[in-house]
Fold:
Amino acid sequence: MFDSKLIFAIIASLLAIVGNVSYLRDVIKGTVIPHPYTWFIWSIVSMTTFFGGIAKGAGIGALPTGIAEGFTIIIFIFSLKYLFKRRAGHIRKVDHIFLIIALLGLIPWALTRDPTISVVVVVLIDVVAFIPTLRKAWEHPHTEQPLLYEMNVLRHILTLFSLNAYNVATTFHSIWMIITNSLMTAFIRKRG
Structure:
């Protein structure tokens, strides 16, 4: 029997793999410089939205987020080399403020342990954490590549179609990722 949700989840997962493998390859080559603060926060956000989505009935629709989370952690680890080599010239003092705001935003999540509240809090943190990367992409578009962000837009659209349950915990992240990744793609394309 044809299961459209499974097909959407598989295609979204493949898009996550294509976008992230391409991005990771460019990070390893040194042609893309990920912002370590953003990728650190994204690691926490993706993990929370993955488990929150599962807890609230996302079903197979959580698969693309889980796959992307694995890559997010790997890319964060690779981003650390720029901190240790002091090549992170794209990190500004204001980025420290965004990191602190994002980390402080984890407190309500830690206190509530409610999947819906947790997802809303971490997605709002995610939007704040995106700001340093958006700024970096605007100022230094050559340090990013648009394929990952384009694949993320498509992946999140398909993820919405693959969900078994539709509620704030399962949809909020994808909706915001469609918006922020579209903006990131526009910044890179316009300035690149």
